[in-house]
Structure formats: structure tokens, C-alpha cells
Amino acid sequence: MKLSELLRGIPHQTALPDCEVSDVCSDSRKITPGCVFVCIKGENFDGHSHAAEAVQAGAAAVVCEQPVGLSCEIAVENTRLVYAKMCAALCGHPEQRMTFVGVTGTNGKTTTTNLIKSILTREGHKVGLIGTIRNEIGDEVVHAHRTTPDAYELYNLFARMADSGCDTVVMEVSSHALHQYRLGEVPFEIGVFTNLTQDHLDYHKTMEAYFEAKKMLFQMTKKSIVNFDDPYGQRLIGELSCPSFRFSAKEPDVEYYAAAPRYSASSVHYTLRRSGGEYPVDFKMPGSFSVLNSLAAAAVCIELGVSPEKAAFHLCEIEGVKGRSEVIPTGKDFTIVCDYAHSPDGLDNILPTLKQNAGGRLVTLFGCGGDRDRTKRPLMGESAARFSDFLIVTSDNPRTEDPGKIIDDILPGVRKYETPYVVIPDRREAIYYAVSHAQKDDLIVLAGKGHEDYQVIGEEEIHFDEREIVAEAIARL
């Protein structure tokens, strides 16, 4: 590809003549002859300091925000954004060949995107999915390393989707990806806002900065669908310039309303109201959050042309999403539910509904991630203790932190209540304990891991699938 084609539409300054380039790269360790090296500043690393060695390794040009003293440098204002735009050009702009839906928020992204894909697929569309659990190209599964991939990986994935015949892409959009301009200029048809609660403050530092990062999605969308039950959603509505549609389970005077919600241990029931019409929904995932997630998914599909009747019908047929209020079979007289709840709000959403429908005790097993926001740890302890009859405090992904010290941060919140608890830092042993001490009709919640089939200890990912561990524990009995 010609350098001029790669830079088309990108404001820049350079004395470098047009030339053939082979690739685009932002990692100086992965330079190939003839590539364009893009200097990106990170928290602990600055690509500008490696520009000269990139040229020595064969880079044909260097894109930078500040002078690096090279004749082949190309000056731009924002290298992160330019990197994403160049990746799009390199891949032939696949983002221009498909319809895009982006879902952002603290909780509910995975469930909402999976539901949208399921409904559209049942309507005859071929849909690409980019998410926390995995990426999908129609029925093909592609491993996901993080919620929103690096720009190079992302646009190559878009190209594969477009080439395979996908007409729609539904993706989870993380605040990190927005803040780091990983998406470039994807032309989203619809952006969805699920909610905003405390999370990722190790990165964003303040809730205001976290909100502003999420808000960036809606500068790229033709229309928005916003949770009006969330205070930040109400604020967002007032700050958007694109057409907005509200969804709610509390306020009838919105575009999409869930009337008369009812809950059971395995599902939710409500009537979807839209433009005077009423459509019954029986959705097979428990919890008040399941009402809003399914309602948001229905709203997206209706705005994309699916009839309200069909959207509601498809929701009734869908079985649920892995790691989201997922019942793990035990063959015993107690129930185990696996859920990704890893924030105070996540626990506040799932535990009250489960407690209402538990025949015996509600037992919650949970921990907090290491090298992440410490301030939410006591809040999670408080949430778990408030709603549970018994707690098992353990590890999540401790990463490079001492699991014992993470638990020490959790316990002040737990001790605000008189809920009995045990501390078992080893999560496998904690699950064995939960199973071996289960009483008749107990409902045991394994919170925090959800779909993950690994645990991060130190710098290493270790295989850790809670479904397998539950089976091992049952076999021990």
C-alpha cells in the first residue's frame, strides 16, 4: 500500500516522499521491513523513545506527536487515533461495509450484546460479536484477550467479519478502549448505555473521568439507547446531540418501558411497552438487571427494523448467557449459580433477587481483583454481607498482589454486618468448602469469575474453570 493511501484524510506534516509500506505497527519489538511505526505514549512506556531503533530495524516511516529527529518522521496531533485510522485503511475500511452497534457501561454489556446478536441472528442476519467472553464471526468463535481489542487486531477482525458476509457487528465498548482511541472512527448506528457504577478507578481515577470516557462512544453514534433508571444515564441524555431513546423499568413515560416486572429464581417476566403496543416477555435469566439488559437488547433490534412482536418473541426463546446468572448442574438438593458480578453494583443487582427466591440460605463466595481499584473492596464486602446469609471470602484474580492483603481490604465492609463468614484465600479450596458445607435448598453464588476459565496469579494465567471445580467437589462428596 502507498503511504499516501494510508494517510488519506489524516491531517499530518512530513517531508517524506510517497512510498510503498508493508504494515502498521505500534510495538517496536515487532518491526518488519517497510512498515510504519506509530509512536504511542502509554502509562509506563513511550514509543517516541524507540523511534530510532524502529528505523534501524527496517521501519519506512515513523508517526509521532513530537519531533524525534528523523527524516522519515510524520507529525500528527494524536498518534493513538491515527494508529486506529491507519489500521482501518490497511484493512480496506471494513467498518464502512457493516452496521455497528456499540454497548458501553459498567455492567450488562456482555448480556446485552449477546442478546442483540441472538435476536438479529434469528431474524436472518449474519452478525459479528466482539466481547468479554469471546469474539464471534457468525458461528465461528475467536478467542477474546480483552473486552475491546487493540486497533490492529480490531480492524483485522472487522475485515474477517465483512469478508465472511457479516452485515452487522455488535460490540462491547470499554472505557479504556474509548479513552485510548482504539476504535478509531467506527460509524456506530446505535450506541447503548447500560449504567455507570464504581469500577476502573485505578485507571480513570475519578467517576467524572470514567463517565467522560464512556460518553465518548456517543460522539460516534447516529442514535443512542440509554438506561433512564441510572442517574448517569439521565445525565447523559441531557448532554447528547444525537437522537436518544430511553429504556426503563421504573418510568412509564419513556420510549421503551418494562411494565409490571416479576421475578423467579430462574427468569424474569414483564410487558414490553413501545409506541402504545404491549408485548409479553418471559426471559430465562433472573435478576432486576436482566429486565433492563433484555429491554435494551429489544430496543436496539427494534430500532434496527425488527418488529416489537418478534423482538419479544425471540427474548422468550433465548436460554441465557454463559457466566451470567448461570446455574451449574450439581444433581444435589442445593443450587449453585455462577455470575460475573465483580463490583459493588454487580452484587447489589444479583444478590437481592436470588435471596428472594432462595429456598434456604443465600451463600456468597467472592473476592476482589488484584492490581485494581482498592476502594471498591470494602464496598463489595458490605454489599455481599448485606444480602447474604453466609459468606466465603476468597480470591478472584490476585495478579501481583498478596491475596491475604486483598482480603484484608474487603473485611471492614463485611464486618459492618453480623453475617457469618469464613476466609479461604485459595479459591479452589473455597469452592470445595462451599460444596461440602452446603445445606438443603441453599443457593450458592460464585461471584466474580463468570465466563472466565482462568485465574491470574502473578503474571501467569492458570486454567481455572469453576464448572469443572464444582464437578470435582461434587465427586469428592
Structure description:
The chain is an alpha/beta fold and 477 residues long. The protein has helices at 3-6, 51-56, 79-90, 109-122, 151-163, 175-179, 201-204, 207-215, 231-239, 288-303, 308-317, 344-356, 376-387, 403-414, 427-436, 466-476, and strands spanning 24-25, 36-38, 61-64, 73-75, 99-104, 127-130, 135-137, 140-142, 168-172, 188-193, 221-227, 244-248, 256-263, 268-274, 277-283, 326-328, 335-339, 362-366, 390-393, 421-423, 443-447, 454-457, 460-463. It has an eleven-stranded mixed β-sheet, with helices on both faces. The protein has a six-stranded mixed β-sheet with strand order 16-17-21-18-19-20, sandwiched between helices. Helix 3 (79-90) packs parallel to helix 5 (151-163) and helix 15 crosses helix 16. The radius of gyration is 24 Å and the shape is globular.
